[in-house]
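User: Fold this, then the next.

Assistant: Folding the first:
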Amino acid sequence: MQKYEIFINPKQLNQLDKDIWMDKHVPAVLKIGSSQYTIGLSYRGNVIRKKKKKSYNIVFQKPFTVNGAHEIHLNAEFNDITLCRNKLSLDFFDKIGVTAPHSKHILLYINGFCKGIYLELESFDQYLLEKRKLPLGPIIYATNYHANFSLLTPEKKLKTSLDDGYTIKYGEKKDLAKLENLIAMTNTVSNEEFEKQIPRILDVNQYLTWLAGVVCTQNFDGFIHNYALYQNSETGVFEITPWDYDGTWGRDLHGQPLDHDFVPITGYNTLTGRLLFFPQFKKTYLDILSSILDNQFTVKTQTERIDELFQTIMPYIHLDSFIKASPEILKQEKEFIIHFIQKRNTYLKQQVVKLQ
């Protein structure tokens, strides 16, 4: 496992600790092996900022990009005792054909003190698009639970703006108008008009593949949060990508167990509900999901991947004082995840039959 060392003036570190919600980056140095980089450092996330083990955002300053990235995230994965659910999820999306950030586990030190095992994540931005040889285009983050493709908030209150819940990561403010058009169309046009127009605005098959991934991993927040929209400048349509998937594989974002049938096969946001109303889109979704249940979301396939990830972190788990995980606990958690996959797979196959 690669060692990342951050060196920062204690006064700058105290500045972060005094205001954990500050998004301003403070100067620091990152050393990886024999290479050294000037960076900006800040905390990231929401719930995690209140925990002892915090997540970090790193922006490269000199050089401006490292391995093609200008920005990376170091996720604490504090509420996941395995430290693997997020990576397992994003790798799973990658396998089923949905663009997702790549990630790897690293060992983090700050001013000589070991902070434990972290998950380094790519930032979903224009640099990621360039690395994947994808056309540049606007990227919009779903930054809170109002990003449900509806005219109403989850509390059933009328939104003050159609772009409520979204933040531009790459692009201009005018790019939000294209998203507003998608949301308005989803909620206001006739069935005939929607069926005809939606493929011109949204990559429907790609969206339904993403939906299948969220449904399999059972990310409760994934339908109205924890995603980004990217408008491909060549096709002109929106594509969707996942991020922050630690609350998955049988547990919620707090690490508490979720029943294998907690999230329905149809998910729960307004755009999904509208799409699945139409027989052709529903059939496409069920075909995609069935293929994934037969090939990628299986005990055999995922057990091999889980073993690989656990073998990566096992030799270093004793260095992470924030994670109380013994080999025996990890073995139990592995069995927990495998049992979830088995039960979830069976449940979803039964639901596929009922919806056909």
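Now the next one, as you asked:
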Amino acid sequence: MEHTGFFPPHGGVSLKQLAEHLGVELADEASSEVVIRSIAPVYRAGEGDICYILSRKNRVELETCKASAIICLPALKSFIPEHIPVLLSKKPHTDFALTGALLHPQAMRPVTFTSNPATISPAAVVDATAKLEANVGVEPGAIIGAGAEIGEGTYIGANALIGPGVKIGRNCSIGGGASVLCAYLGNGVIIHNGARIGQDGFGYAPGPRGMIKIVQIGRVIIQDNVEIGANTTIDRGTMDDTVIGEGTKIDNQVQIGHNVRIGRHCAIVSQVGIAGSTVIGDGVQIGGQAGLNGHIHIGDGAQIGAKSGVMNNIPAGERYAGLPARPLWDFLRESAEIAKRSGARDKKDGSAEHD
């Protein structure tokens, strides 16, 4: 693989060490000392690279694969060329992700701009009443407001804004240009460049001379190990809190309205919009560009398809899709019927033109 220099290859991990780190089986002990330095897709993996496959669909790419190792399910081992060592895994996608984190830890958080990210730049503005623990890094142009508290090992990117009274836990990363206001963050939180956390939500009451702004005096609570993508916005609560649960991952350009409560370990993809006061359970997955109405409840483990319009509650464990969103199989059945009727109509019109 040709490396660009942004994320250079690792110094090297032997397959034996990697197998022990992942808790997987190395199919051939003779390859224990093969060195892995980076990750790559199957089609262009070369010496020192490791890749993974999930199905037989990769068979054609495997014919020319030059990887130093492949992670796969035991049932797929017979498809791997004999010259490529194999790590047998029950969860190859997850183990590949863990491998990437081991080989390229610097790619797991927003990029730092100084040689020593655990220092406070003289070009940053840190209020005298702010409390910063040891090894906090603050890049040039960042502003830390009065009474803010930032935990050990946290990094604040260039031109980031940390508002008065904000509390940020330990080992967090706040990307460049991000703003964090009226918020409490747990440990291990990652906020990418340009995200906006804690600004006032969209609330107005009609008056005789137009719309009257409703004050927003709540907070944003972000629990441990949450990751929030670039240019995502999370509004503070009107009077209560907007809450993002532990381990939840939010993509770029997502809009989360005031008083929304999102559970633990959810996954929300790019350009999703969630209106105010909606409650989302644990383990919910929401596809890109879906829109959720306000004041509804999404049950634990529910899955919502991309571009869906969710107007009403969704029970726990259900899969919904479409506009308006309905149970997945209903949506697929209706879509198939529409396609069938459309095909029949096109065929009829074509016959009429021929006549």
